Structure formats: structure tokens, C-alpha cells
Amino acid sequence: MKMLIIYYSAYGHICTMAEAAAAAALEIPGVEVTLRRVSETLSDDILAKMGALEAAKAQADVPVVTVEELAEADAVLFGTPTRFGNMTAQMRQFLDSTGGLWMKGALVGKPGGVFASSATQHGGQESTILSFHTYLLHQGMVVVGLPYAFQGQMRIDEITGGSPYGASTIAGGDGSRQPSENELEGVRFQARHLAEIGLKLKG
After folding, report:
1. Binding residues for NAD(+), per the UniProt record (predicted)?
2. Is residue 170 a contact partner of residue 161, using CB atoms and an 8 Å limit?
């Protein structure tokens, strides 16, 4: 079963989550995992002004995803930061290039899930994931979230991301907060859950 993890990460938080998800999915026998990022649309000059250039350089060794790779996958996990309660423009640009797959029904019946990040606790993580689900549904995919079987999303002893819609992390207003162990365990759980469903659907 070929699982594809596609992400965009401006400051590295989603990249960290994606790497944790990939490692977790590989724990499932019979699962192959490919990690890919969507292409950057901002210039190095703009990234430098945003303080994101070093994070971009750190991810340069991760290949940019192609539409063909998305079609070849049996299960797909997407990761995106939040921009005003929605996905980033970089992720949207990639999704908008997949109309040919929709025309052929290439993704119909394949499981897909989403994880996200935002600067603040109530910065739009859930709306980002839910609005991303619209794309999965238009493609005919089977939406896979983060079930309450992952007890970590019910914790009240610490501030944490995570909802039944998908794993998430809180980056902090200045981006200094890194994904907590609970948040990483959430995306690991989601990745394993998605991989197991992918195996069942592939038969």
C-alpha cells in the first residue's frame, strides 16, 4: 500500500509533523511511505523578510510532489499551516492543478486526511482542516480524521492541538513553539489509522 504525505511548511512546524507521520506509518507492515512537499510560490527575498528562508532551505532535500505521484498513491495525508482559517496558497495552488485527476476519477475511493498548524490555540486549525475536506470529497476520497480513540485530544492539563477532524499543532505568535509530544503522537496516530484503512481498502 503506497501512502503519500504531502505538506507545506513555512517555518518547519508542519514539516516536523509530516516526518513524525511518515515514521509512524512505516511501522505498519505492508506500507510504503513517500514524503513530498508542495512547491514554494514566494521568492527567497520575501521568505527572508518573513524569517522563513532558513526553514525553506532546511527542507530543500524533500522532493516537490507531482500530480502523477498523487494519482499513484493508495492513501494520502496532507499537512498545511493555517492562513486566516484556511489552507496556504501554496497548497491550494497544488490542489488546483489536479483537475485532470478529478476528470478521470483517479482519487475516487482512496482514503485521505489532513493535519494543520496555526499560531494560536483558536487560530483556525479546525476550519482549515474542514475546508480542506471539501477537496477530498470533490475528488471522491474517503475522509479520515483523528478519532477519539486517540485520547490525547481530550487532555485539559496542557494546551494542545488536535480534534476529531485531524491532528494539529500550535506554533505560537512568533513561531517559537515546536510541536509537543502530545501533538506529535496525534499525527502519528492519524498516520497509522490512515495507513490501516488504506490497507483494508486496497484489499
Report:
1. 11
2. yes
